[in-house]
Amino acid sequence: MLFEVQCCFCAGAWAAVIILAFAVAEANLSETDADAKKKTSVELLRRSGLEKEFEGLRLRRNSLIHARRDGAAITLDNQYDDRSQLEEEARAAVCLMFKAFYSQVGT
User: Fold this and answer.
1) What is the total count of domains within the chain?
2) Residue 107 included in any domain
3) Which residues contact 2 (CB under 8 A, 6 or more apart)?
4) Has residue 27 been placed in a domain?
């Protein structure tokens, strides 16, 4: 999935980068935790000591993938008018992804 993050980043698909970066972090934490099948992403982050750092990314990812009746988390206008802000979010997400990816011994 790291390659997918790279492709999306290079293409400027900022929302996809945010979603995939969290997925990579979560997948890596699942792989390195023996009891992962019984744990939510919040529990995995808590056990790894990354919960507070990842809270914003987790909430942003959730807002992007879960539909809401009161409006979209991101609109077409946001994707064109707020590209620099979305790029900053994507860069921060990638930094956190690598922090989680390399936080475990042996990774």
Assistant:
1) 1
2) no
3) 24, 101
4) yes
Give just the sign of the alpha carbon dihedral 98, 37, 59, 84: positive
CA distance 67 to 105: 36
Q: What is the pLDDT of residues 10-32, one digit of tens each?
A: 999 999 999 999 999 888 888 87
CB-based contact 22:94 (threshold 8 Å): no
CA distance 50 to 34: 17
Question: Whole-model pTM?
Answer: 0.83
Q: What is the 3-class SS of the chain, one letter each residue?
A: CHHHHHHHHHHCCHHHHHHHHHHHHHHHHHHHCCCHHHCCHHHHHHHHCCHHHHHHHHHHHHHHHCCCCCCCCCCHHHHHHCHHHHHHHHHHHHHHHHHHHCCCCCC
Task: Determine the structural domain holding residue 7 and report its residue range.
Answer: 2-101
Residue ranges of the chain with pLDDT lower than 70? 33-37, 104-107
Place of tokens 């744990």: 39
